[in-house]
Amino acid sequence: MTIKRIILFIFAFAVLIRSELRAQVECSQFYTFGSTNVSEGFYIKTSLTGQYTYRTHTIGIGGQIDLLSSSENRSPVFDVVYTKRFPIESFPLDASAFFMYNRYSERMYETDYGVLASAERKHWTLKLGTSFRTFGLTKQAVEDYSVTNASKIRENFNTVYSLSIRLKPKDHVWNIGITMSNCVNFLILQETNPLFYIETRYQPKKAITLFIDAGYMNAGAFNLSVNPFGYYFKTGIQWKINS
Question: What is the pTM of this model?
Answer without folding.
Answer: 0.84
